[in-house]
């Protein structure tokens, strides 16, 4: 029997055929109809945007057209995260037992793919094995112990959040029999060149949406039952262990490509979404309300390359932060909330990890432009103004800063404010706009003195000096003998003994090995030890300013409160609990937390 064919409706049609036929009529009537519509106005059908061209989408971890904002509704998450950084196991994972440098993941019984095949540990193991060929060594090995159990072995013992992120941080999304032929081909590839050819084929040969529906390649509580040019339809999968908990039986995804998000919202076709309604153009109907807003662990920053002789000097970095109007930049670019405490941590992470007495002592740099303070910093660094009002360093050279920004409009607007502020202050500033085709290469290869970029403010990410990513500190150091990271920032760092004592003389400082500090953070220690290491790193960052944070992103969730009941939370951040793809609405729908307001 074809997956999804049970439960027939009207005239013996399968439910998939029934929905397709219904969609053909509904698609035409939706265009200008103002009468109640059985999809748009039903509390038993929830609408969410689909921001892709359906025929161009191919679903898979290595697909070049994987729908990142959609795929998580199709699969079971191995774990979920909250905006505060907690990670909770998903129902498909029964347990994760961590012992030293190993983690044993046990998958739950009773979960099946829409095809009826059982979900097993082999599905996840196949993905891990293919990933090792596609992306190289991840620093751990994975053994398939039995059909329910995987054993991970790491290079060294990891703290539980890091071990969970590595061993159960994604979703079960690769049915083994569909992908094992690819694993065999990768194993049999005799050369790196041949292996690269296989990987290239894999990236372009992942299943399309219709194939995914026809072959039952999903395992979430909603089954994909219709794919058309203007919408997708999903229906409750009755054989799912949480089927009885799922309160909204059907989901529909109008395609954004054929109509703007603002129009979909104005027409009332969407019943929920991420972000802030106030940021949407148009006039949302009265039944849509902002249900929650909360700061996240992400945001934007200035990535500084200390190999520049001027940015390598601490007083210049402090002057740069002081003269730049952080509040205006965040307002112009709509980047959430200005960062008031420079620690490398997001605002939620700082509250979560830094003791109150440390946060209260740390130095607070001006959020508004303060040219007088900036000038004091420059003079303290041995700089003076020439007859033209430009700054000259101890060697007589004028600071020349080359700034790079992606061509994305908000980044361009922010960069213009940064550049004009520094230029007026007396720096020689040049700005480059990086196209989408070369932006990641330029950022990875450190081709500019300053890059406007995003940050990940979780301590398990940003303080990882072994990684080279620009969203973190970007050292790329794993050798205990290394003196500096790839951007010239030191491994042996001078840290004030008292948090916030940014003017402390050498006698009131200590030298800290940042690689050793990171090893303490990533290791499975008691909380007091981990907190102390994080506070040490934050104190150094607050003093040295390796990068400069600008805005802390603010996210949120809005929804249709006329037709649906939403969970009540004491803390808005609970609304941000989300699995892979960062989709809290999907998480709530899949767990029955959003319910029809009537029996409709």
Brief sketch in words of this structure:
The chain has 600 residues and is an alpha+beta fold.
Structural account:
It is a single chain. The protein is α+β, with helices and mostly antiparallel strands and 600 residues long. The chain contains 18 helices and 25 strands. The strands form 8 sheets. Strands 13, 14, 15, 18, 19, 20 and 23 form a 7-stranded mixed β-sheet that branches. Strand 5 and strand 6 form a beta hairpin. Helix 8 packs antiparallel against helix 12.
Percent range for β-strand residues: 15-25%
Helical amount: 25-40%
**Quick one: biggest sheet?**
7 strands, mixed
First-residue to last-residue Cα separation? 31 Å
The total count of strands amounts to 25
- Note the quaternary state here: single chain
Output the structural class.
alpha+beta
Q: Using only CA atoms, what is the Rg?
A: 26 Å
Shape: globular
What is the residue-mean pLDDT, rounded to a whole number?
A: 90
Compute the number of helices.
Answer: 18
Report low-confidence residues grouped into runs of 5 or more: 1-36
Features:
600 residues; 7-stranded mixed sheet; 25 strands; 22% strand
Helix and strand topology:
Blueprint: H1 15-30, E1 45-47, E2 76-77, E3 79-81, E4 87-89, E5 93-99, E6 102-107, H2 121-135, E7 140-146, E8 149-154, H3 160-168, E9 171-172, H4 176-188, H5 192-204, H6 209-214, E10 222-227, E11 231-236, E12 250-254, H7 261-267, E13 272-274, E14 288-304, H8 314-323, H9 326-333, E15 337-338, H10 347-353, H11 356-361, H12 371-380, E16 384-385, E17 391-392, E18 400-406, H13 409-425, E19 428-434, H14 439-444, E20 450-456, H15 459-462, E21 492-496, E22 509-513, H16 514-522, H17 527-544, E23 547-560, E24 564-565, H18 584-590, E25 595-596
Parallel strand pairs: 1-12, 18-19, 18-20
Antiparallel strand pairs: 2-9, 3-4, 5-6, 6-8, 7-8, 10-11, 11-12, 13-23, 14-20, 14-23, 15-23, 16-17, 21-22, 24-25
Helix pairs in contact: 2-4, 4-5, 8-12, 9-13, 16-17
């Amino acid at each position: 029997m074809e997956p999804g064919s049970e439960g027939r409706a009207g005239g013996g049609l399968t439910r998939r055929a029934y929905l397709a036929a219904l969609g053909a009529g509904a698609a035409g009537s939706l265009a200008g109809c103002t009468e109640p519509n059985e999809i748009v106005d039903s509390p038993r059908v929830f609408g969410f945007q689909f921001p892709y061209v359906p025929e161009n989408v191919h679903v898979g971890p290595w697909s070049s057209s994987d729908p990142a904002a959609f795929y998580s509704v199709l699969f079971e998450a191995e774990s979920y995260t909250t905006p505060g950084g907690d990670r909770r196991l998903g129902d498909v994972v029964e347990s994760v037992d961590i012992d030293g440098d190993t983690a044993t993941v046990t998958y739950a019984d009773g979960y099946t793919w829409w095809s009826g095949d059982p979900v097993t540990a082999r599905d996840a193991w196949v993905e891990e094995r293919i990933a090792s060929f596609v992306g190289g060594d991840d620093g751990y090995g994975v053994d398939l112990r039995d059909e329910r159990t995987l054993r991970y072995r790491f290079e060294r013992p990891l703290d539980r959040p890091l071990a969970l992120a590595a061993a159960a941080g994604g979703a079960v999304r690769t049915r083994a029999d569909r992908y094992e032929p690819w694993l065999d081909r990768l194993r049999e590839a005799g050369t790196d060149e041949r292996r690269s050819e296989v990987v290239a084929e894999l990236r372009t040969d992942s299943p399309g949406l219709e194939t995914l529906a026809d072959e039952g390649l999903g395992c979430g509580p909603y089954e994909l039952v219709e794919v058309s040019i203007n919408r997708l339809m999903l229906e409750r999968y009755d054989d799912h262990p949480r089927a009885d908990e799922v309160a909204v039986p059907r989901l529909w995804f109008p395609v954004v490509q054929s109509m703007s998000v603002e129009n979909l919202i104005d027409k009332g076709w969407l019943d929920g979404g991420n972000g802030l309604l106030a940021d949407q153009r148009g006039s949302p109907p009265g039944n849509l309300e902002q249900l929650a807003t909360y700061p996240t662990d992400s945001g934007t920053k200035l990535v500084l390359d200390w190999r520049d002789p001027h940015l390598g000097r601490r007083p210049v970095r402090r002057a740069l932060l002081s003269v730049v109007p952080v509040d205006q930049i965040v307002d112009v670019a709509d980047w959430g909330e200005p960062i008031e405490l420079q620690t490398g941590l997001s605002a939620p992470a700082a509250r979560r990890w830094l003791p109150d007495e440390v946060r209260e002592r740390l130095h607070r740099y001006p959020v508004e432009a303060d040219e007088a303070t900036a000038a004091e910093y420059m003079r303290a660094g041995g700089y003076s103004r020439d007859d033209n009002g430009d700054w000259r360093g101890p060697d007589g050279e004028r600071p020349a800063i080359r700034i790079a920004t992606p061509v994305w409009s908000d980044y361009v607007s922010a960069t213009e404010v940064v550049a004009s502020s520094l230029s007026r202050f007396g720096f020689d500033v040049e700005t480059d706009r990086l196209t989408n085709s070369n932006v990641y290469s330029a950022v990875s290869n450190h081709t500019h003195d300053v890059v406007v970029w995003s940050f990940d403010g979780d301590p398990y990410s940003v303080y990882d000096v072994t990684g080279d990513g620009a969203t973190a500190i970007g050292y790329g150091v794993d050798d205990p003998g290394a003196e500096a990271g790839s951007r010239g920032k030191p491994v042996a760092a001078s840290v004030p003994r008292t948090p916030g004592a940014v003017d402390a003389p050498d006698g009131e400082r200590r030298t800290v090995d940042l690689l050793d500090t990171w090893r303490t953070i990533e290791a499975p220690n008691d909380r007091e030890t981990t907190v102390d290491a994080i506070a040490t790193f934050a104190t150094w960052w607050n003093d040295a300013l390796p990068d400069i944070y600008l805005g802390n992103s603010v996210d949120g969730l809005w929804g249709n409160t006329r037709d649906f009941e939403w969970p009540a939370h004491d803390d808005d951040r609970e609304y941000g609990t989300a699995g892979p793809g960062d989709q809290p609405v999907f998480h709530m729908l899949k767990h029955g937390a959003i319910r029809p307001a009537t029996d409709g």
